[in-house]
Amino acid sequence: LAIIPEEQGQLVAGKEKIRFQITADQVRRLTFTGNALTIEEATVDGLPAKAVVSGDVLSFDLPEPFPKGRIATLEVSYRGRPTRGLIAQEEILYTSYFACDWMICLQNKFSDKATFSLALQVPAGADTLAPGSIIAKRSISDGQEIHYWHESRPYSPYLFGFAVGRFSEVRSGPFSYVSAGAEPDELASRFAETSDVAEFLAGRAGLPLPVPNYSQLLVEGFEAQEAATYSIIGRNALPSGTDIAAEDWVIVHELSHQWWGNLISAESITEFWLNEGITTFMTAAWKEHRYGAAAYDEELDVARARLEKAREAGFDKPLAWSGQYPSLAVRRAIQYSKGALFMHELRQVLGEKAFWDGLRLFSQTHAGGTVTSMDLQRAMEQASDQNLDSVFAAWVYGE
Fold it and tell me: Cα-flanking dihedrals φ and ψ of residue 363, to 5°?
């Protein structure tokens, strides 16, 4: 993707190449998430491809029906004003979650993972952050330069992103703490426990930190969003003082996604609780490790309260429910909070050794891939030598 953010991110111009493989026979059309971008030109293997927008779907007609297994390349030039996903603050422009509003992709098809190369045009002297590593910078005319980033591990599209500003940065081993509005001392203080959190999570996953470099981007407001190899964290989501260190949930939750969500990804939005429920539970588990059992219980009490609020509103569904949620808050009450409570339930049912062995088996088996609830069930059953049909039916499938 080559992209130029203009007008403080209100306008973008991009040229994108997507290499794809056909997985069904006689495919006539490629479909993506609809957005507010205007397609200026599109080709498939050099032949024109008509862009069609229908509701919230953007599609491209193929030059001819493509057989299963064919590999081809879609090239798109576009321009427009994204309605979501680009946030401009006084000293920084960054993206958050809705990647398919500023590029061409499929937002909720998490199993469609891809490697990502980015050529980002910015004012000369600007700093940038994006998935993977920066591999080159090139000066061009009119006081501009292009920063080239590349990530070779495939990720789900919602994890693509970038940030532009003039950054302060603190490095500590594989970790970097970055901000356009904070001094190095503040960054070092706010993110001091990152290394300890990563060590704890790696032990529970049975896998080392999945990326060679992990950045935490501090911005204003209440932001909490994972990206492929970094997280975006709002100052208002962090503890306001040293006396409430146990409110470090956002650091733990977003770092947890490097394992559960990014490396091991829910297959679809229906299975999204596997991303969010596990990371919400791992936040409680870290608090237990760091602050004691009372902190674990308090974190789960927050989840119970959020789930109860949804139930009082007349809404409670199994974790793998495929229907429409009435609001984002209700979706989170189920997929985040109820998901965390289910992981706690499994811990109680299986006992410490079998539960953590099961989570490690699940994580190691599916690292780099996509998962369903059945994958978690099989791992927990193998680790515990128990049949878990009834507990998964009650919590996950609703059978």
Answer: -70, -45
Contact at 8 Å (CB) between 317 and 398? yes
Tokens linked to 135: 């591999």
Query: How confident is the model at residue 7, as a pLDDT?
Result: 84
Cβ neighbour number for residue 305 with a 10 Å cutoff:
11
Going by pLDDT thresholds of 50, 70 and 90, the confidence category of residue 241 is low
* Last residue in a domain, options 230, 256, 282: 256
What is the b/e burial string over 203-241, where b = at least 16 CB atoms within 10 angstroms of the residue's CB?
Answer: ebbbbebbbeebbbbbbbeebbbbbbbbbbbbbebbeee
Query: Residue 33 in contact with residue 100, Cβ under 8 Å?
Result: yes
Q: For the domain that residue 241 is a member of, what is the CATH number?
A: 3.30.2010.30
Cα–Cα nearest to 17, from 78, 97, 99: 78
pTM confidence score? 0.95
| Residue 294 bridge partners (DSSP) | none
The parent domain of residue 204 ranges over 168-256
- What is the C-alpha to C-alpha distance for residues 71 and 76, in angstroms, rounded to an integer? 17
| Burial zone of 316 (CB within 10 Å; 0-12 exposed, 13-18 middle, 19+ buried) | middle
* Number of separate domains in the chain: 3
Residue 285: which residues within 8 A CB-CB, separation 6 or more?
204, 296
Rounded Cα–Cα distance for residues 325 and 138 (Å): 46
